[in-house]
Amino acid sequence: MSTYHNFIDGKWTLSRSGTVFENRNPADRDDLIGVFQQSSPADAEEALAAAARAYRSWRLVPAPKRAEVLFRAAQIIEQRKEAFARDMTREMGKVLEETRGDVQEAVDMTYFMAGEGRRQYGQTVPSELRDKFAMSVRQPLGVCSVITPWNFPMAIPSWKIVPALVCGNTVVFKPATLTPLSAVNFVKVLEEAGVPPGVVNLVTGGPDVGTRLSTHDEVRVVSFTGSTSVGRTVNQNAASGCKKVHLEMGGKNVIMLMEDADLDLAVDGCVWGGFGTSGQRCTAASRVVVHERIYDAFLEAFSARVRSLRVGNGAESGVDMGPSVSEAQRNTVQEYVRIGTHEGATLVTGGRALTTGAWARGWFHEPTIFGDVHPRMRIAQEEIFGPVVSVIRCRSLDEAIAIGNDVPYGLSASIYTRDINKAFTAMRDLYTGIFYVNAPTIGAEVHLPFGGTKTTGNGHREAGTAALDVFSEWKSIYLDFSGRLQRAQIDT
């Protein structure tokens, strides 16, 4: 059995708490991956102090030089992609094809942000006064707390940590307790690539660590991805210290199928959007709104495809869908199946936990479809984070858009149609941060902003150059070489 340590000030260390927690395979709970440090607030304090010390010198390293370290990190991740993917499948369950994609996203993001080391552009503008020069530059903020979820345990840390570093900040990283091994793998890469001691620190586990990371005076930025309820608490904790807070939270995403949709293509998209990662994505397509003219044909084809999905250990070939990440997550799925049935929706397929045979040692659940769902039912309003899709009937594009918008979240949406007018109308009128045409609600690329509206987020974006705005501040600079006092807006 392997024991894994925290990483503080360039050293792998035991937690001051003296306690550990187990990390087990959700597809086979007899498979103990290792034990990890159950960190305490004292560990967080030590990590924050190390990050604060390291910031004094790291911020002065030229951005292109910081980028060279990140470029090496991207190369290392790329070389170890298969090993990292297999570790990830073992600790969180999604199939190997998907974990390879997760690691590849970390590669892509790290290469992209390494390029930003030479592209942190400001502005130069003409002054309204003679003999005066005006410009703006980005500047780092300081220590960043990074708190990440378990469903993308290498991609999402890369979205946060890498732009923080290229901008000149230092980081204390708390990963989800369900996926600490992928976090350790990522931090080991950064260490090997040459990130100096204290610039990146890792503390695993510990119920009070997140609170300390969102309230401590040394922290200038808190970047959190997770549930909306926890995100609100993080926001409240950080508010009193006037910290910059970046939140990526829940989603209740919709795919809209118009009467002219390519039905086969739409079925492919709804299967992938609804059941990729066992529905455990903030961008999962948990609602499908279908025009009444094709509703019956779609539901028949969709349910047939879903019944054919093979559920099992994601490390095995031929498996389409892995387990829920934990017993608690599967219990949540079962509870929503009960809620949907009680609300009067039609259980078209699935609905059961899988507990026999090869499934007996894991947290497996059938891919599940509800039909005849009313838009205001709880299963159509609340994020389930599991393999449950609600199919809703509509009579027009306007009604589909109204249904799509009528949830608390606003992350991702999609439309299947051959009519360009309908596509552009939906692109304009769906109030989400991401929109797709003739594709499912998942599949964002690293060079465009990622994030949502309403209770999905708080206005900041990850990925693309938008990520730089989370981890830097603007400084406007005026150089007056007139040799006399000039007063803007007065001496014109």
- How would you state the average pLDDT, rounded? 97
Cα-based radius of gyration, to the nearest Å: 24 Å
Would you give the CATH topology of the largest domain?
A: Aldehyde Dehydrogenase, Chain A, domain 1
CATH superfamily of the largest domain: Aldehyde Dehydrogenase, Chain A, domain 1
> Whole-Å distance between the termini?
75 Å
Strand order of the largest sheet: 14-17-18-13-12-20-21
| Count of domains | 2
Determine the fraction of residues in helical runs and give it as a percent range. Answer: 25-40%
The secondary structure category is alpha/beta
**Beta content:** 15-25%
Oligomeric grouping of the chains: single chain
Can you offer a commentary on this structure?
The protein has two domains: 6-249 and 457-476, Aldehyde Dehydrogenase, Chain A, domain 1 (3-Layer(aba) Sandwich); 254-437, Aldehyde Dehydrogenase, Chain A, domain 2 (3-Layer(aba) Sandwich). Helix 7 (209-215) packs across helix 8 (228-239). Strands 14-17-18-13-12-20-21 form a seven-stranded mixed sheet, sandwiched between helices. The chain has helices at 41-58, 63-79, 81-92, 96-115, 155-166, 180-193, 209-215, 228-239, 263-275, 295-307, 327-343, 397-405, 420-429, 466-470; strands at residues 6-8, 11-13, 20-25, 28-37, 124-126, 132-139, 143-147, 170-174, 200-202, 219-225, 244-248, 254-257, 287-291, 346-349, 353-354, 364-365, 368-371, 388-394, 409-410, 412-416, 434-437, 453-454, 473-480. The protein contains 14 helices and 23 strands. By secondary structure, the chain is of the alpha/beta class. It is globular. Strand 8, helix 6 (180-193) and strand 9 (200-202) form a beta-alpha-beta unit.
